Amino acid sequence: MRFLKIALSIGLCFVLVAALVACGGTKKETVRIAEVTRSIFYAPQYVAIEKGFFEEEGLDVKLTTTWGGDKTMTTLLADGADVALVGSETSIYVYAQGSNDPIINFAQLTQTDGTFLVSREELADFSWEDLKGSTFLGQRKGGMPQMAGEFVLKKHGIDPQNDLNLIQNVDFANIPSAFASGTGDFVQLFEPQASIFEAEGIGHIVASFGEESGLIPYTTFMAKESYIKENPETVKKFTRALFKAQAWVDSHSAKEVAEVILPYFEDTEVGLVETVVDRYKSQGSFATDPVLDTAEWENLQNIMDEAGELPKYVEHETLVNTTIAEDVMGEE
What we know:
Elements: H1 2-22, E1 29-35, H2 43-50, H3 53-56, E2 59-65, H4 69-77, E3 83-86, H5 89-96, E4 103-110, E5 115-119, E6 135-137, H6 144-155, E7 165-167, H7 175-180, E8 186-190, H8 193-200, E9 204-208, H9 209-213, E10 219-224, H10 225-230, H11 232-251, H12 254-261, H13 270-282, H14 294-306, H15 316-319, H16 323-330
Parallel strand pairs: 1-2, 1-3, 6-7, 6-8
Antiparallel strand pairs: 3-10, 4-10, 5-8, 5-9
Helix pairs in contact: 2-11, 2-12, 11-16, 12-13
């Protein structure tokens, strides 16, 4: 009997060891991401999850959509998330308020504006001059979409405050429904909403703000400086997984990307998702590596300054950590 018990114990040990080996030998570490919105614009993030790139790094990613820059940053500051996916301008706003634990941008996801100009009427020969005298349903004041939008309007000789009726008091999540219910002649929208409206005949895409505004760190992964210092390997693994996803998206067709990320857009036809992915790929919206360089950072602050929203100039190295991304890229 005693021999039988010993044999059973040894057998159980072998089972446990085998289970540990099968699971990678270690427990996965949870990383909570708060994304500013749900958009095909963030395709590489969803690819990293669905293709198992985070899992390969031993990370269990928990993704929450927090709908808006203010809410996303509040969630991060209140420790409701470990990492935020949001516009880099938010880190500047926090820093300008005198935070003793600044928010550090460590991996870039998108490198152009991700919004499109949608007209209520079909315009065969659209000109930016068509906006003059119109009602324009814009994004939140001080947010990157609105600032990039105003930058483009000014580039085309349009004064947003005087040449059109600019509406900015609609909550981010309610902008599409406001336009659908009849507010505005033009609206600035993310995908897939812009293409959905076009398919439903509610509006017509006439221009891309991304093509017009140049390279900017439009959406980046960021975390508190303290989190990065306390979890350097976790952040590095996170960035490595992202880089794998960026390379995968860059080397695969829009159709293949659409099929992978479709679970995040269950109410959207795969053909429409493919169209949107192709649109973003063709205009270079998806960053092909996680490095947020100095030129993009400067362009961001120039756009903020032009919009009158730059609280103070911040040096690139103050709020951007490129070492992590560069180390990961150097492993290739």
